[in-house]
Amino acid sequence: MAIFKVGLTGGIGSGKSAATDYLATLGVQILDADRFAHQVTANGQSAVAEIAQQLGQQVLTASGDLDRAMVRQIVFTDKSKREALEAIVHPKVRSAMNAAASNAQSPYVVYAIPLLVETQQTGKFDHVVVIQANHELRRQRVLTRSGLDTESFDQIMASQASDQERAAVANTVIVNESSLDQLHQEIDNLHLNLSALAAEK
Fold first, then answer.
1. What is the DSSP string of 50-114?
2. Is residue 154 part of a domain?
3. Domain encompassing residue 88
4. How much is the pTM?
5. pLDDT-derived band of residue 152, with 50, 70 and 90 as boundaries?
6. Domains of the chain: total
7. Phi-psi region of 146 (alpha: psi -120 to 50; beta: other; left: phi over 0)
8. Do 191 and 110 fall within a single domain?
């Protein structure tokens, strides 16, 4: 039976992780693009040498690890470098995620991909879910939970698709501006809907 693939995305601080964490408790297999990106760029992986060739040897530590902070600094200020990085990493991430999905036991599989819209992957999924929240709330969440400063947050925001662009390709939009309990209720409804759609495929 064909796997029912769900693409889940949202801007920084929108609550993607809270949504996927709860879906996981419902027995849904979650494939997190960020985690796979870390795996394919771990020390010893072929992507590391390719990235160093494109961005310069300064992105490597003395032990051969990728200096992720240095990479972020380079790609956020140079669009061509960011595109070169994405051309190396994204195909490897997609391949690894699809391999993991082939062993799925849940009725559908969720691909959590922050740059789903930006990388024009929405057509690869049976259903696209977008998690949204207003910009100020997202800023508060990110600055509270992480070490990012306002400038770094604004750089990330500027590099991502707009709410309107994400909503335009979504089958389902969940606005996450209330409590965690409210988000869980929304996800419960989403799970019922996706399970029914997957059963029909």
1. HHHHHH-GGGB-TTS-B-HHHHHHHHHH-HHHHHHHHHHHHHHHHHHHHHHHTT--SSSEEEE-T
2. yes
3. 35-104
4. 0.89
5. confident
6. 2
7. beta
8. yes
pLDDT tens digits for range 95-107: 999 999 988 889 9
Q: Is 157 exposed, middle or buried (0-12, 13-18, 19+ CB in 10 A)?
A: middle
Last-in-domain residue among 70, 88, 104? 104
Whole-number Å distance between alpha carbons of 26 and 168: 28
In a domain, 86, yes or no: yes
Residue corresponding to tokens 């997957």: 198
Provide the 3-class DSSP secondary structure of residue 37.
Answer: helix
Kindly tell me if the per-residue pLDDT of 158 is higher than 70. Answer: yes
Please give the residue that has the higher pLDDT: either 98 or 201: 98
**DSSP bridge pairs for 31:** 111
At 5, which CATH number?
Answer: 3.40.50.300
**What pLDDT does 201 receive?**
81
| Residue 72: pLDDT over 90 | no
Picking from 104, 127, 157, the residue at the C-terminal end of a domain is 104
Query: Quick one: pLDDT at residue 119?
Result: 87
Please check whether residue 201 lies inside any domain of the structure.
no
Do 55 and 13 sit in the same domain of this protein?
A: no
